[in-house]
Amino acid sequence: MGHGGGGALSAELVENVFLPAFGGRTLAALGDSAALSLGGARLAFSTDSFVVRPLFFPGGCIGDLAVNGTVNDLAMSGARAAYLSCAFILEEGVETSVVGRIAGALGDAARAAGVEVVTGDTKVVESGRGDGVYVNTAGIGLIPPGVDIRPQRARPGDVVLLSGEIGLHGVAVMSMRQGLEFGVEIESDCAALGGLVDAMLAVTPDLHVLRDPTRGGLAAALNEIAAAAGAGVVVDERAVPVPPQVASACAVLGLDPMYVANEGKLVAFVPREHADGVLAAMRAHPLGAAAAVIGACVPDHPGMVVARTAFGGTRVVDLPLGEQLPRIC
Q1: Which range marks the domain in which residue 249 is found?
Q2: Which residue, of 12, 111, 116, 161, has the greatest Cβ tally within 10 A?
Q3: Crossing angle, helix 62-75 and helix 194-203, to 10 degrees?
Q4: Nearest CA among 58, 265, 267, 68 for reference residue 167
Q5: 220 and 240 assigned to the same domain
C-alpha cells in the first residue's frame, strides 16, 4: 500500500521500475502533467486513477474528484483543460443507482470546469475483485504562449505561496471512513483550480512552479519540488493555514497536517518581484481567499525542506515513506 501513497516508496517504484521500462525525457520530468509540442501547439496531457473509499464523502464523491484531480494536474502546467476521457471499472453487484449518482456528479463537475468528456470505457470485474467503482480520467489542454511552469524552475529567492487551508480532504475522507465525529462536519476541499491559475497568470506568465499537494500533502509536494530543482525550501509553520477542525482531528488521529492530502489547493513558487501581485490575485478569487505566503526557496540545504517551528526552532520536513491515509483519492 505504501508504494501507492505518493511518498518515498512511490518515488522508488517509479524510478526503479517504470522509468527504466518506458524511458523518454518527457516522462523523466515527472510533472503533474506532461508538456508536449504537437502541430505548433503546446499541450499538457495527464492521466489519473481514483480508488477513494468511501465513494461518497462530505464535500464530494469519486465522480467530481476524478474530474477535478485531472483538471488540476493540467492546471499545474498552466494549461487550460479542454477534453477528458473517462473509464469506469465496476465491481459485479454494484447498484446502477450508485453508478448513476457518480456519473452525474462527474458530468456536473466537468461542465463546471469547462471541459468536455469526449471518450470513455467501461469494464466489469467479478464480485470481490474490486471495491464498487474505480474511475480513470485523462485530460488534455492548451498551454498559453510564454508559460513554462515546472518544478525544475524553482530557484533561490522565489516566494512560496499556498492558496488556502490544508488537510480538509484527507480528514473528511478518514472521518467518513472511520465514523469519527469532531463536533463539526469537515468537508473536502475538492475543486477545479483552472480559474485560480488563470487569475495568477493574468498577473504574470512567469510563474516558476505550481503543484497541487494531493497524496502526501504539502510536505510531499515541497520535497518533490526541492529535489527536482536542487534548491532548499524554508517554511514558516505558523504561516501555514490549518483550520481548527483539521488541527483537532489530526491531534486525535496522530497525524501531521503537512502530510494530509488536499484536492482543491495549490502551492506556487513565484519570483519575488511578482509575489505581492500574484498573492492579491489569488485572494481575489473564491478558491484563493485564504492564500498566504508560507516560505521561500533558498540556496542552503539543496533538495531539503526545513520548517521554522512556533517555538523558534527548525525541523526537517521529510518526504513521507508511504501514505498516512491510504485510498483518499
Answers
A1: 151-316
A2: 161
A3: 20
A4: 265
A5: yes
Q: Assign 3-class secondary structure to 215-266.
A: CCHHHHHHHHHHHHHCCEEEEEHHHCCCCHHHHHHHHHHCCCHHHCCCCCCC
Percent helix, percent strand, percent coil in the chain, to nearest 5? 35, 25, 40
**Can you tell me the distance from the alpha carbon of 103 to that of 44, in angstroms, rounded to the nearest whole number?**
25
Residue 119 and residue 160 share a domain: no
User: Could you give phi then psi for residue 324, rounded to 5 degrees?
Assistant: -65, -35
In a domain, 185, yes or no: yes
Q: Tell whether pTM > 0.90.
A: yes
DSSP state of 4: G
Residue found by looking up cell 527504466 in the block: 20
Q: Helices marked H in 136-167 — which ranges?
A: none
Q: Which residues contact 185 (CB under 8 A, 6 or more apart)?
A: 58
- Triad 230, 233, 235: Cα angle to 5°: 170
